[in-house]
Each structure stands twice: as structure tokens, then as C-alpha cells.
Amino acid sequence: MILIGILVTLLGFVISIFSLALSSVGARLVVVLLGLAVSLYGIIGVLNKAYLKNAIWKKG
Amino acid sequence: MNMTTKRLLTFLLVALCLGPLGFAQGPAAAPAVAAAPATPAPKPITDADVANVPVPTADAHAKGDPDGSLTGNASDVTVSDSKKGLTIGDLVNQVGQNKVAINFVWTLVTGFLVMFMQAGFAIVEAGLCRAKNANHTMMMNFMVYGVGMLAYWLIGFAIQEGGVGAIANLGGTAPLSSEYAITLFGKSFGLFGQNGLFLVHKGTYDVGVMVLFLFQMVFMDTALTIVTGAAAERWKYAAFVAASFLMGAFTYPIFANWAWGGGWLSALGTNFSLGKGYCDFAGSGVVHAVGGITALATSMILGPRIGKYTREGKSNAILAHDIVIVLTGCFILAFGWFGFNPGSTLGASSNGNLRISSIAVNTMLAGMAGSFGAMLYMWLRYGKPDASMSGNGLLAGLVAITAPSGFVNPVGAVIIGLIAGVLVCISVEYIDRVLKVDDPVGAISVHGTNGLWGVLSVGLFADGKSNYGGAWNGVNGSVTGIFYGDNGGQLVAQLIGIVTLVGFVFTLSFVFNLLIDWIMGQRVSAKTELQGLDLPEMGALGYPEFELKSEI
Fold it and tell me: The domain containing residue B299 runs over which residues?
């Protein structure tokens, strides 16, 4: 899961780079926001969840 | 005289007496316009005129100069040829050197202020932690200065600034001329600099380069010390040293190159017509978001402190041991920020650099607004004006204004700071209660969340009035946000910077820290953590005469 989280987080960055291939400001904005959402999902939705599964406070 | 006449005369008398007082602080009346005499054509100054400027005699100097009227005159101008005496060429050279000297002194002194912020960070973080970890927390803050500086001197500076090119304010820095770049979408993407290893490589033993190194080094160290707060009370000291070295050598310099060193983010304007490219005046993104995001990566890998969460996942408050030094540290940081933001002009004498006054005022206003925002939020939500969150609100306002400080007006600065003050409280609650990432000092929220907010705010609030030599990042005109008429291109450039921080910098920091975790382990043992890190990790208590309550 950690490797997947890293890849998803990095994917968001790659998506935002590809926004530069577009010409309209509006289209670029949408693609960059999509990239941001993907990166945030990688951090919060995948990586952090993976760490919370084995959190120290759950072991008691 | 009747009563009405008496009243009228009394009124006129009072008005005559008070009139000048009433206008004493108003603008002086404009002098009557006199007929302008015919001005003769200006006579060119010759070397002979310059050579014959009267200077005080040695006898006059020997008597002392109590009023300062003799000291500093034509005899102090450096003469290139003593046989010729003072020439116009000498004067012009002196003017040029004076300009660069003013900028050197400005940049160095503001750099010294930024260096002093390390002391502020140290006591804020130590105060917010428990007394049993005081030595360990202080020692991390102390040694991050040396570890970071070593890494930056060896390689980091070359990566960041090795291809920045000539910085006119500092008289050139011409040896920093080699940027490694790739071609993408038909445009050049600068990735890292190549000159400046050890500060001697490829002619970088240069006075201008030295000024730039000092100023950039203390910025880099600020980013590094953010992480020590979020990872406090459970971070193995050896792992801290390794992580800080990697961050000072690679993580920070790479992003700083992209934003400030001539890299691809700064070229988004020239290459892709996105405003003036990614604009981060003093480092909300480069310094604070890089620090805050690395702090998030490190804290996730470390996990929360023992006792921070119940078995059901409910957050427990772990109290600060010394709120007095926390707020003292906040003041030291606010003081240092007058170096951080105004110093980022890299000069006081050049086109547009007189905006240092506006930048300084924006900085203090945003800090004030941030502390108000946090204090009021906590007061309304929890019934008390929480001291540590008010301090964090001040810092959040300062972090947020760091990127836009050179581009916005005072009203924009107050709005940015106020939002930052509220945002830091909400972010601390979200990270603590929803993400369950333990951050003892709130560093992720103060520096990460508000660093990103500061970067974004440039694309919203930049008022188009700044003019630092007529262009920014190689694009003519002033930085302008959408609230002041931009078409959104600047906002997109800022958002690309934000995704780079969240997507790339986080990943790089995470991978570095994961490797360290696999190689040497990041976290101390449970026994060490419960005992307090001072004795097991550092060999001495921070407060040996205090009676500490052990949790064992």
C-alpha cells in the first residue's frame, strides 16, 4: 500500500505537468486541480490510511 | 461693540492663534509660483571641476569633527590614478560600488536576522514539548543549523543557485551560470544548478556569491528546523541527523532551484505565458511549505507519541511545559521575519527596492491579523483565548504573507493574515483528529497548510503595483492576481507550484525518510519515549534540578 500511495501522490504531480501541454488557462486550471486532488488522495487516502492500520495506539 | 461683534472678533483671534497649530501636521502650503528665471544650459562637469572640489584640511580634521560636517568628503573617494587625481570616472565607479555595498550590507544584515530565528524556533518547539524532552528538542534545533549548513555548503547551494545567473543587485554573481535542463513540450525545463560546490567550484569564490550563500543558507536552515518540531519527542537523534542532511543537500535545494534558481517553475511565465511564472517572494512555498510537507511525511512514518490517542482513536492533549518561552520564541520569530521578507529583495538600492518599507509593513500586519484570527477562533470555539494557538496564529500569518509580501498592499496583507490565523486552527484540528498525525507543535499546519495558502494568495491578491526593475522572472510588468484583473494565468502558475510541493516534494521527502527508517529506524523505543529522550538519547536532562514525572 505504501508503494501505491507514493505512486499515486507522484501521479498527481505528473498530471499537473501535463496541463502545460494545453493552451487555454481554464483547461490548465482544471487539470492542475485534478492533479492536486490525486496527490492529496495519495497522501491522505492511501499512505496515511496504510499507516493508521498499524497505528501504535491500536496495539494498546 | 455689541455682543455679536465681540464674539466675531474673539472667534477671529482664536482662529488666528490656533490655525497654524491645527495645520501643524498637515501638508505645508504650496509656495506662490514665481516667474521662473531663464535657466542657462547645463554646463558639463569636467575632470578639472571634480579635481578642484574643496576638501577639509588636515589641520581641520586634527581638531576633531564633533558635528560630523568634515567626515566623508571628496577625499574619501577612491582615486584610480594618483597623478591624475579625482576624475569623473572615479566618481561613477564609487557610486556603483556604493550601490552594491548598500545591497551587500542589507542582504547580510537581514540574513543575520533570519539566522537568529533558529533561536526562536528552538524555544518555541522546546516550550511546546514536555520537560523530559527539552534537551533533545533543543539539541535538534541547535544541530540542525550545523548539519544543514554542511550539506548545503557541500552540494545544496550548487543545486539551488548554480545556474541562477547574474544577480544585478549583488553586482553580478556571474560564476553561477550553469543550469542542467531538459526539453519538455518544446521548452527548456531547468532542473538543477551545477556550479558552486564547496563555494570554490568554477569561480564561485566570489564576494557576491558569498552574500547569496549566507542569505540562502539561513533560509534553507529555517525549512529544516520546521521538521524537528513535528517529529519531536519520539525521533531518534541519529535519524534526525541523516534526514536533515538529505533535506539540506537535496529536497530543499531542488525545489528552491525550480522556484528561485532559474528552474522550470520560475519560467512558467516566459515558456507558457502563465503570468510572471511561479512567484514566491520570500518563501511561503520554498521554505515553509517544503518544511511543513516534509514534517508531514516524517510524522506519518514516525507515528504518534505514546498516549496521544486512546485505543478508540480519540486525541488526548499533551500539554506544553513552558508557554512563557513559547510566546517569547514567537516574538523572536516575528522579529527575524523582518529579515526574511524585506531581505528577499537582495538589496535596498536599486529599481523598486524601496518597497522594502511596504514589505516590512505587510509582514507585521499579516502577523498581527494571524494572531487575532487564531485568538478569536479559539475564544469563540472553546471559550478561552488559547495562548499557544495565538502564537501559532502569529506565525501562520507570517508564513502566509511570506510569498505575497512583495506583491500585495496592506489590505491584502491583513486579509491573508486573518485567513491564515483561522486556517491554522482548523488545520491543527483536522490533522490531529481526522488524519491522526501527531504534530506536537503544529508545524504541519503553521508552515505546510499556511505555506500553501501563501503561495495561492499571490495569484489572488497581488495588486500589480510592485515593480522590481520592470519585470519579474523575465516577464515584463508587475505580478497581478485575479482580484486585480489577471486572466487567471498567475493563479494557475501558483497552483502548479502547490501541486509540485504536495506531489513531488512530499514524495521525495517520504522516500528519503522511508529509506532512513529501513536502514537505521526513525523512532526511539517505547521505554526511551516514556522515560523522556533527554537521558537515553542525549545523556543529560534539560532540567536536572526539576522533579520530572516519569510515565514508567
Answer: 96-538
